[in-house]
Amino acid sequence: MTEQQQPNENTTEQANEHADTVELSGEQAVIAKLEAELADAKAQLTEQQDLMLRIKAESENVRRRASMDVEKAHKFALEKFAGELLSVADNLERALEFINREDEAVRGLAEGVDLTLKGFLDTIAKFGVNQVSPLGQPFNPDLHEAMSIQPSADVAPNTVTFVMQKGYELNGRLLRPAMVGVSKAPE
User: Fold this and answer.
1) Domain end call among 47, 77, 107
2) What is the pLDDT of residues 24-48, one digit of tens each?
């Protein structure tokens, strides 16, 4: 080899190395671009999974709330109707209070009214309506309406001493509070 040929060979080798470097740089750029796209895709996947979980949880909550609303609607659909029927029970109880059970002529009537009241209360109890008769119990403002307060040494203060009108509950929810008299400590 001559000296002139040597530089050409060096130049060719340098050109090849430069081409390899350019080729590597191009490959590295493609790899970097693909890695960036992969990172974006992973971030998008994570975001989509999070969104899917949120949507799934929200749909479960909506389904649960709808189920509870339907259950409450079934449970308390009779609330207004049952409230209107309470006056029938009140009237039957008042009739029993005023009937003289010692009078032989009306004893059968008293038994009939008594049986009618019992049958009526049993029937409405089948649909979740129950009487609240708090005589002798502590006064509870959530269930009772105090109509009078009287001093009494016989019972503890804040005790229901008499019931003017019984209260009613529908499936555990107060339909009508009991009207009661409450004791207080004597002066």
Assistant:
1) 77
2) 677 888 898 999 999 999 999 999 9
